[in-house]
């Protein structure tokens, strides 16, 4: 894999600045989900962070990795947003530090025996930054509509100005030309049996397909293509689930449009509510020919906003 540094030209030109510490309020460089790996001569960490995202329809890496030698880690390279420094030690020797050289910034120290430690800490950092940006800049009108219909507070991206309402259903979209970002809110009657059983591994998995079918029915009824027989649904064979807290269930996979070639990734959150209903928050992206990783992760910050 070619890991020639792909930092902005300005960064490369500034590399001769040496070790001078940047101003306290200097902004970090690089884009979200770009990671600078330092001193990893065997590419152990770089290869791990560059493995394909399994939740996307086409191959994209988990992170865009830039690798440099330890002796080159100076000057503007220290302004990188996310940094993983390869160290020597055992699997117990790791550390994380924030805003070491600039802000926002996360630096993870890891070695060959704990290369996996970098991913959750970088992912957490990027998610936190996305949530902060969303709370700073959002669409209050769309947020008020969500709260009125479903009783929850959400920070909706500022460019999501189009909406479609139905019974227990709301669809928000930015109507982008090259790529479209979408949010769907659905209220379902009844509760997911998993929460009563308290067992994610057993009965929950058996009960979940029924919930997916109900979500699919709502999507098909409300989101259609150019012709009436073109209707949105989830490709259930791609759906993966994970538990975050006792009352939260997250699932992701691929969506498709029946009788059409449209499709893309989705991410969803299901919560049982005290009024005997389930709330489903679903984010999906349509971006033919475009990279989709960052787009869907931006929307994850809306659905999973803490």
CATH class identity of the largest domain: Alpha Beta
Q: How far do the termini sit from each other? A: 34 Å
Per the CATH scheme, the topology name of the largest domain is Protein Transport Mog1p, Chain A
Main sheet specs: 7 strands, antiparallel
Number of domains: 2
Cross-sheet strand order for the largest sheet: 6-7-8-12-11-10-9
Give the C-alpha Rg. 21 Å
Count of β-strands: 12
The portion of residues forming beta strands comes to 25-35%
What pattern of helices and strands is seen along the backbone?
HEHEEEEHHEEEHHEEEEH
Shape: elongated
Average pLDDT rating: 85
Class derived from helix and strand content: alpha+beta
Key words describing this protein structure:
306 residues; alpha+beta; 7-stranded antiparallel β-sheet; Protein Transport Mog1p, Chain A; 29% strand
Structure description:
The chain is an alpha+beta fold and about 300 residues long. It has two domains: about 35-135, no CATH class; about 140-305, Protein Transport Mog1p, Chain A (3-Layer(aba) Sandwich), CATH 3.40.1000. Helices cover about 25% and strands about 30% of the residues. The chain is built from seven helices and twelve strands. The chain has helices spanning about 10-15, 45-50, 120-135, 140-150, 195, 205-220, 295-305, and strands at about 35-40, 65-70, 80-85, 95-100, 105-110, 160-165, 170-175, 180-190, 230-245, 250-255, 265-270, 275-285. Strands 6-7-8-12-11-10-9 form a seven-stranded antiparallel sheet, with helices on both faces. Strands 2-1-3-5-4 form a five-stranded mixed sheet. The two termini are about 35 Å apart. The model is unreliable at about 1-25 and about 195-205 (pLDDT under 50).
